[in-house]
């Protein structure tokens, strides 16, 4: 009888453990408030050099706002340029591909860019971002025009992402090389290694 009882015990216990399919999906309330980079993150600049990134991310009701600043050095003290995106957010079902993650849809309602160094003033104006009148440190609305690699909100209205909370850290999906997450099929299948934390 003992083997039978032991087997039944294991069966009952295993049915109580959340699986990838039945784990509780996150709710917006779980994420409410501000999150920020845990570290100044080094990223390749595409030309053999390195840029350094800092992020703040806010969830306010059903709205999200991300502010990203790119820096010249590893302490994230010297700003080069930044961008800020905002729009509606909705969380869906638990991910079927990433354990503990929840599917999220992030709408783009407004996008803004800011140049903190003269080369980026010139680059944004040459690309006709906003109305082509960038000045140092002045944020410009690029929602209608897009800017460099960021399309207009009309051409790129939403992204399909993942979110996961683990040990007080907030993870998003790992962005693809082409940065395109504009359809459900483009939703990441892995998490970014760079989490955000509470301030």
Helices and strands in order, then pairings?
Elements lengths: L1 H15 L11 H4 L1 E5 L3 E4 L5 E11 L2 E9 L7 E16 L7 E6 L2 E6 L2 H9 L13 E2 L16 E9 L2 E4 L23 E2 L2
Antiparallel strand pairs: 1-3, 1-11, 2-3, 3-4, 4-5, 5-6, 5-7, 6-9, 7-8, 9-10
Silhouette: globular
Number of helices: 3
What is the terminal-to-terminal distance?
56 Å
Over the alpha carbons, how many angstroms does the gyration radius reach?
Answer: 20 Å
Largest sheet: 11 strands, antiparallel
The helix/strand order is HHEEEEEEEHEEEE
Structural class: mainly beta
Low-pLDDT segments, ≥5 res: 1-21
Please report which band the strand proportion falls in: under 5%, 5-15%, 15-25%, 25-35%, 35-45% or over 45%.
Answer: 35-45%
Helix content: 10-25%
Arithmetic mean of pLDDT: 90
DSSP strand tally: 11
Question: Would you mind describing this structure in some detail?
Answer:
Strands 1, 2, 3, 4, 5, 6, 7, 8, 9, 10 and 11 form an eleven-stranded antiparallel sheet that branches. This protein has a domain at 23-108 and 157-197. With 199 residues, the protein is mainly beta. The model is unreliable at 1-21 (pLDDT under 50). The protein starts with a helix and ends with a strand. The chain has helices at residues 2-16, 28-31, 118-126, and strands at residues 33-37, 41-44, 50-60, 63-71, 79-94, 102-107, 110-115, 140-141, 158-166, 169-172, 196-197. A hairpin with a 2-residue loop joins strand 9 and strand 10. The longest helix has 15 residues, at 2-16.
